[in-house]
Amino acid sequence: MLKWRDRSPQQWQEFVNQEVCVTAHDQQSFEGRVFTVDPVSASVVLVSFPETKRPSVKVILGHAVTDVQILGSGTKESESRMKSLFLPDRTQVLSADELKSRRENLRVWLEKNRVPVTEDGDDLRVASVLTISAPYSTGDCTCANEIILARVQSLVESVPGEQHASLASI
Amino acid sequence: MKTPVSVLRLPRGPDPNSRGFDPNSPRFLALCPTTLSSSSSSGAVDEEEQRLRSDLRERFLRTLLLMTDKQVEFNMHEKVRVRARFGASDIDVLNFQVSGLETPLGVQKEALLRCQDVISCSFEL
Questions:
Q1: Contact (CB, 8 A) for B124 and A53
Q2: Rounded to an integer, what distance in angstroms lies between the CA atom of residue B121 and that of residue A43?
Q3: Biggest distance spanned by C-alpha atoms of chain A
Q4: Cα–Cα distance between A136 and A101 in angstroms, integer?
Q5: How far is Cα A17 from Cα B118, in angstroms, rounded to an integer?
Q6: Do B60 and A38 touch (CB under 8 A)?
C-alpha cells in the first residue's frame, strides 16, 4: 500500500464521509468522519459530533499521517450534516417578486455607481466579465478577475434599502 | 489576556520571485512532495482526477475559512500542545499564521508555525 501522501485523489475520495481512525506520528490516533483530504498537503480533515459537546474539527497534517483505517461507512445524511457545518446556510428562500425587486434595486445601485451592468436572463452581467446570480448577494458574484470581483462585492454589500440576511455564516 | 512578550524572532518574508501556486517553483519542489506528478501515468492530467482534486481542495479551503479567528489547539512534536487564534495558511500549507500563541515562554502576539512541526490542530464549532 502506498504511503498516504503518494496516493491518488481517487483513493483519497474513497475515504470521504467514512468514519476512520487516523494514526499519526508519536503513535497518536484520531477518530472522526472524513470531510476532505487536501490534495496539496494530503492533510485529513475529520469532523466529530460528540453527544454532549459541540462539534469539533481536527486537521491532521499530511506529513504526519502514517495510516488511515476505515471504521464505518457514512450515509447521505451524515454527509449533509457535515456539509452544513462548512457551507454557508442558504435558508432564506425568496419569492420571484422579491428576487426581481432585489435585482432591480441592485442594478439601479450599480448604475448609480457608474458600473456598466446589463441583464442576462435572471443574472446581472457587469462589464461582461462578472455575473451576479440570484439572490444577488455578495456571495453570488462570479468573476475571473479578483480585483473586479472585490470592487463589485463591496458595492453589492453596500446596496441601500435592503435588509441583508447575513449569508456569510463562516 | 496575558501581556504579550516582545517578538523574539522574525519570520522570513515570502519569496519575492514566485507568485501563487507554481509547481516548478524551487520552494514547492524543495518543500512539498510532488503530488501533481504521482498519478498521471499517461502524462495528460485526467479530467476526472482534476475534478476530484478541485472538489477536495475546495472543501479543505472551506475548513481553513471556518478555522479563521477561532481558538485552535496545535498538537506538535514531542507532545507539545499550544493554543492560538488561527489567522491564515499559505497556499502550499507550509506555514500557519497565528495570533496570541500561548507558549511556556509567554504569549507571542503574532507567530508563524511551520506545518512540518505541527501534527494536528483541532477546534470546536
A1: yes
A2: 11
A3: 62
A4: 10
A5: 24
A6: yes
CA dihedral of A57, A63, A69, A73, whole degrees rounded to 10: 40
Closest alpha carbon within chain B to A14:
B52
Render pLDDT for B38-75 as a digit per residue (tens, 0 to 9): 444 444 557 888 889 889 999 999 999 999 999 999 99
Contact A61 B115 (CB under 8 A): yes
Q: What angle do CA A106, A112, A117 make, to 5 degrees?
A: 60
* Residue in A9, A10, A60 closest to B120 by CB: A60
Is A170 exposed, middle or buried (CB count within 10 Å of its CB: 0-12, 13-18, 19+)? middle
Contact B84, B101 (CB under 8 A): yes
C-alpha cell at A37: 483530504
> Within 13 A of A15's CA, how many CA atoms are on the CB side?
29
Given A6, A38, A86, which is nearest B93 (Cβ)? Answer: A38
> Residue B88 corresponds to which amino acid?
A
CB A28 within 8 A of CB B119: yes
Let me know: does B98 contact B84? Beta carbons within 8 Å: yes
The reported pTM is: 0.68
Is the ipTM reported for this complex over the cut 0.85? no
Give the count of beta carbons closer than 10 Å to the beta carbon of residue B95. 18
